[in-house]
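S1.2 Input.
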Amino acid sequence: MPVSKINGVNINWRVVGDRGKDNHPWVVMTTGGRRGHDEFIPLAEKIAAYGYRVMLHDRRNTGASDILIAGDEGEEMIWTRDMHALLSEQNALPAFFSGSSAGARTSILFYLNYPQAVRGLLLLRVTGGPFAAGRLPENYYGQFIRAAKEGGKEGGMAAVCAMDAWKERIAANPRNGDYLAKLPAQQFIDVLARWNEIFVAGGHYPVMGVSPEQLRAVKTPTIVIPGNDNTHASASGLTAHRMIAGSELHQLPITDQDVPLIPFPDWGAYEPEIARVFADFMKRAAAAESKAA
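S1.3 Output.
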């Protein structure tokens, strides 16, 4: 898989689809949580079959890309900076942006920062509501801050490295083990605490991490496919659809389940429908774009 040095970090990426034809539009797909891009490969292949080039990448601190615990902005905002630099390097802009959960938030934030680089938004499993606001800060930050603190001055980062989430990052990229071992525990704690504070501040919005004013500022073609678990309740997707003027809504033949999280791979049976709906939407958005030009 190709690797690019982006903003000081080695980012792993791949393109699914025909890169040799300039008339194949670009689609950027971003997974949720801190998960690597691999879980999106099956869906990317189905979308690529409709004639699209799908860019997948491991965001910093995810997958096999480098870990870098630094930055004053929220982590998702930092991801948008990396995405813009990577996509610019590959001449992949403007593009359609798609994502699930944290990937949906990151796609919206990317548009808000780089509107001219976005042809449309394809949003899956939008996150929001009290359950997600209570669960995710601990999942993303709290447990790791606590491990670094309880590990003490000498063992803080050793305790972090022993956690499954970071063990996976080290196994995927051995450089990450060296980096974390040398990282001062207090720096790790301070940065994650700052990221957590920013994350929590956006947690009370109906669509997590994106204010109603920001949603109403989205002026690009948008389609929303709601989720169906407590973290990605359908109500959050419906709210995003209502607040983004002119957006389309597609509801899968599913109902909300009273479970904390349904892993995205469990949606495998719906991927053909998702790919077809997204491809049709992008075709119509591109046609409207050409007509307007």
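S1.4 Remarks. The first strand starts at residue 3 and ends at 6.
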